[in-house]
């Protein structure tokens, strides 16, 4: 908890520094925040004697870590001052959810989760979610701004790149899941509710990509599709836990 | 509409037509029985399908539809209906494999429902044609596109047709009695060329809970070997993959360890597709981070 608060403060300072064009401070503070947060994750890994990847709370932890990391990468490449503030705000939201509803259990891993595929599967997915979260933030920002100023092709290119890289990671996450499923449950793809929703999300991002390639001058519709994609992604990530059609039928719901 | 060049309007119309055809087929013929595609039917269907795709590609200058199917104007509406049908699946509780669909549209057993299958089939046609196109116009920048389209094509075709040949059986093994009979999920008994005797079953305690079966395996081909099976650590014997599935205590036989035996002859083909997709993702990542991606429009 102390670690989380220190990280949040450091990220906030970093974001403010970015706004004020103090690039060096932005790097240093955001980097320090990431370091503190990562050492918290490592500490947890050691005390739990297993990678903290299993519960919703634990995946949120990784998400809060990857968001500022991706924010920092985007900032360093394209010098978008606002991206660090956005990634920090999003990350802080997730940290607060975790403080209020930790959902971190100390029990041991059930046997099906004791697999070398487990850690890469979840970490890669969380990284993909964070990238696509950044694409969503970009889309919302551009849509909000488009009432006043036109969206530039450069800005669309950044969004496209975020989606491409996010989709690449999502694909790898899905594949690691498939190989793991074959080892643990006997089949690589069983149309389990989580898998069905993962397919929906994956195909919806493909709609964005194909639409962008088909009509390179139309920006508004693809950006709205990104917003829809992100909603579907949330459904896939945690929404299905509350979905009547999926309850009690998924191998992806553990604990609680 | 239908005057050249076709755009989204035509693409959307084709997809709507496909859904209507799917609904009519579903209501008149009922759900699809994948069992009819068991070997060698599935192999023939796969080969004929590939030959037809090449023929369609070759005729693209004569029949405009085949050219149109390779454009984004066909791809985007297709992806939209694929998402639409998969969304219905995600929102409808699916019945167990042993049951039939509980609704006339077959949505409660979506994998056997005509509209769903037709839409995915249509996507496979597009993927196949686009793969051929990119393959023939080989260009370094197109590599991720070839890998993605071909990979997904292979996974969908091999996964769907191969499902007819997949066998998943459970076998109850107990100590000192060799067992070679196994049952499928409908309760039908199969005699296998593999006999398994349980030598020991134990549950390892925390910190790492493990279910371990030590078994002695003999096969008709003359294999005679001892193995250890755990959750996540299946063994492979003559085309079968054997998993730790469950266990129970029986008053007569003592500890019974339930093993699952899976045979999926099409798995190597599916894995080829998955690996193509994996390479596609890696290339996409490298390409996206190094330079702008451009795809040539025909």
Write the layout of secondary structure elements.
The complex is a heterodimer of chains A (256) and B (298).
Chain A: H1 2-19, H2 23-48, H3 56-78, H4 81-100, H5 118-145, H6 153-185, H7 193-214, H8 220-237
Helix pairs in contact in A: 1-2, 1-4, 2-3, 3-4, 3-5, 5-6, 5-8, 6-7, 7-8
Chain B: H1 8-29, H2 41-58, H3 64-68, H4 72-91, H5 114-136, H6 143-162, E1 167-174, E2 179-183, E3 189-204, E4 210-219, E5 224-230, E6 235-237, E7 240-250, E8 254-263, H7 267-290
Antiparallel strand pairs in B: 1-8, 2-3, 3-4, 4-5, 6-7, 7-8
Helix pairs in contact in B: 1-4, 1-5, 2-5, 2-6, 4-5, 5-6, 6-7
* Beginning-to-end CA distance, first to last residue of chain A: 22 Å
Provide the structure class of chain B.
alpha+beta
Biggest sheet of chain A, open or closed, and with what strands and sense? Answer: none
Name the quaternary structure.
heterodimer
Tally of alpha and pi helices of chain B: 7
Rg of chain B (CA only): 24 Å
Q: Which class of secondary structure composition applies to the elements of chain A?
A: mainly alpha
Total number of helices of chain A: 8
Helix content of chain B: 40-55%
How does this model look, in words?
The complex is a heterodimer of chains A (256) and B (298). Chain A has 256 residues and is mainly α. Chain A is built from eight helices and no strands. Chain A has helices spanning 2-19, 23-48, 56-78, 81-100, 118-145, 153-185, 193-214, 220-237. Chain A is globular and about 50 Å long. With 298 residues, chain B is of the alpha+beta class. Chain B has seven helices and eight strands; from the N terminus they run ααααααββββββββα. Chain B has helices spanning 8-29, 41-58, 64-68, 72-91, 114-136, 143-162, 267-290, and strands at residues 167-174, 179-183, 189-204, 210-219, 224-230, 235-237, 240-250, 254-263. In chain B, the strands form two sheets. Chain B has a four-stranded antiparallel β-sheet, with no helix packed on it. Chain B has a four-stranded antiparallel β-sheet with strand order 2-3-4-5, with no helix packed on it. In chain B, strand 7 (240-250) and strand 8 form a beta hairpin. In chain B, helix 4 runs antiparallel to helix 5. The longest helix of chain B has 24 residues, at 267-290. The two termini of chain B are 20 Å apart. Mean pLDDT of chain B is 91; it is low at 291-298. The chains are: A mainly alpha (256), B alpha+beta (298). Chains A and B meet through helix 6 and helix 7 of A and helix 4 and helix 7 of B.
